[in-house]
Amino acid sequence: MRLAIKVDVDTRIGLREGVPRLLDLFRRHGVRASFFVSFGPDHSGRAIRRLWRPSFLLKMIRTNPLRLYGLKTLLSGTLFPSGPIGEENPDCLRAIEAAGHELGIHGYDHVRWQDRLEKMTELEIAAELGRSAAAYERVLGARPRATAAPGWRLTAASLAVEDRLGFDYASDARGVRPFFPVAGGRAFETLQIPTTLPTLDELTGREPRPNDALFSRLGDARRGRRAAVSRPVRGLSQGNPPPQGGDGPAQGRRGGIAPGAGIGRAPAGKAGQRSGPQRVGRVPGGVN
């Protein structure tokens, strides 16, 4: 069985305190993962504007956000300052790469992307991803090779920007297998490697033993699966025991293609037959 682990980091405390504990955990078990970090401000507190959405309200009730994320994260960008996530913690970023993990970008302002993507122009999206890529390069001395959209949200405009930036691949969506997106008759060039399994906090409150439930969803062992362990949050960052036998809490929003985006999927095999330049190579990171 092949299981690729994806870690999305979009809070300051998650990068500063949660990631080092994950790195230690992965080192002890000989695991490599793909980390995607937001480089812009931590505006987690502004997510309170989503309370009018029944699904978000139910998630807050189910997961106990004060325990899961902590007060500072819940108020970051409102009553508490919203410093930059990535550039404020360069040693953490270098430690991820030094440990042999893959490191990509996870948007710039996570909350803005998740809440406003479908209203953003292509120029605004280019500025958002461009700022994150530039910050990555200032810290690590190279351009990022992969990206993962906040909240698994994408539009035709965001896909076009990804093509221009020349990423090896993107992990913007939920799905079953790698694909090339198609929208408005256009097949985009950046391969999508989707998240195929639920995140741990999507199982928290729904399953008595989240880890058991997660592994029960692996299905056919012959098929590679990608598990998202998003935002290392308060329980893990403080070193508390994993709840209910799990490896630790995680973020995880039920995101997806923005409403009205009209995104389709072309199987990677068929897309590889089309004319035009193709980027071919091994996708780094993950664990076999």
Rough outline? globular
Helix content: 25-40%
Please work out how many helical segments DSSP would assign. 12
Record the strand order, biggest sheet: 3-2-1-9
Largest sheet: 4 strands, parallel
Under the CATH scheme, which architecture would be assigned? Alpha-Beta Barrel
| Tally of structural domains | 1
| Secondary-structure content class | alpha/beta
Mean pLDDT: 75
Q: What order do the SSEs take from the amino end to the carboxyl end, as H and E?
A: EHEHHHHEHHEHEEEEHHEHEH
Poorly predicted parts: 231-255, 270-288
Q: How many individual β-strands?
A: 10
CATH class: Alpha Beta
What is the end-to-end distance? 7 Å
Describe the structure.
The protein is of the alpha/beta class. It has a single domain (3-271), classed as Glycoside hydrolase/deacetylase (TIM Barrel, Alpha-Beta Barrel). Helix content is 35%, strand content 13%. It contains twelve helices and ten strands. It has helices at 12-29, 54-63, 65-69, 71-74, 90-98, 110-116, 122-140, 156-165, 200-203, 210-216, 234-237, 268-271, and strands at 3-9, 34-37, 102-105, 146-147, 169-170, 179-183, 186-187, 191-192, 225-228, 263-267. Helix 7 runs parallel beside helix 8. Mean pLDDT is 75; it is low at 231-255 and 270-288.
